[in-house]
Structure formats: structure tokens, C-alpha cells
Amino acid sequence: MERNSQEVQKLEKQNKKIVQLQKALNKPKGIAEVTDITKIMNNETRYKELTRSMWKLSAVEIAVELIGMTFIAYCIINKMNTTAYISVAVLVVILVAMSVVLLKNYYQKVAYICPNCDYKFVPELKKFMFASHTPHTRRLRCPNCHKKSYCLETVR
To answer: Which residue of 10, 62, 78, 86 is 20 to 30 Å from 132, comparing CA positions?
Structure first.
């Protein structure tokens, strides 16, 4: 009788483990495992709109830089050195200001999803700026699971 009760307890423990394993297997996988990250981003229309607007702002910044460099070259060719020096200083200030606006605009519109725990978060600005990244991910430490990995970029 005692042997049978031990067998029953052993089988109940095994059954509990099997049930736990089944629950773990039926759980949805991490976002990176379910589908390809680039496919997710291509389907997100708000993200596409954000990237389009960022490219437009970048194009404006590049145009300002080219116009400024052309003017500076003109000043140097015509021996207007003082004007060239002032133009360089003004151009640098304008480009830095435009870059700050571009960065701030982008930072305020994106969030990140941890591939390990699927937690959506917004990193600190400093960590956002200096983290290594790809076009759709950024290497950040998740505030939820504390693992450092390439987190998926998404629109807030």
C-alpha cells in the first residue's frame, strides 16, 4: 500500500511537470521568434510614415549643407576669407541645431520592444543616442528583464 502511494505521488509530480511543460510550449514565443523583425516593421504603417518624415528632414539638412558648402567655396575662390570663416561657423551652428531637432523628433516618436520578454519601453536619451544600432533595432538593456540585446524599434 505504501509503495502504491509513493508511485502515485511520483506520477502526480511527473504529471505536474508535463502540464507545466505543455503550458510553456503553448505560450506565444518571443516577438523575434514568432516572425521576422523586418516583416513586422514593414507592416507597420506608422513606422513607415515616421521613416519617410525622417528622410525628408534629412534631405532638407543635406540640402542646407550643400548650399552652405557651395557658398563657402565661392567665398574662398573670390578671396573673401572673413566671410568664409563666418559662413563656416554659421553653417556648423545651423547643422548642429537641425541635427538636434531631427534626433529629438525621432526619439519622441519611437519605443523599443525587448526580444526576451516582449516588454515595450523608452530608453533614456543618452542611452538611445550612444547605443549601437541597425536600421530597425538598437542594443539596449531592458528595464524589465535587465538583459542587454538588440531591441525592436516601434512607434509609440
So the answer is: 62
Across 90-124, b (16+ Cβ under 10 Å) vs e yields ebeeeeeebeeebeeebeebbebbbbbebeeeebe
Nearest Cα residue to 102 out of 139, 120, 129, 121: 129
CA atoms within 13 A on the CB side of 25: 6
List, for residues 108-118, the tens digit of each pLDDT value.
999 998 988 88
Coil vs helix vs strand at 30: coil
Q: How far apart are CA 52 and CA 109, in angstroms?
A: 13
5-54 pLDDT, tens digit per residue, is: 888 888 888 887 777 766 655 655 555 454 555 656 555 777 888 889 99
Question: What pTM was estimated for this model as a whole?
Answer: 0.64
Largest interatomic CA distance in the chain: 108
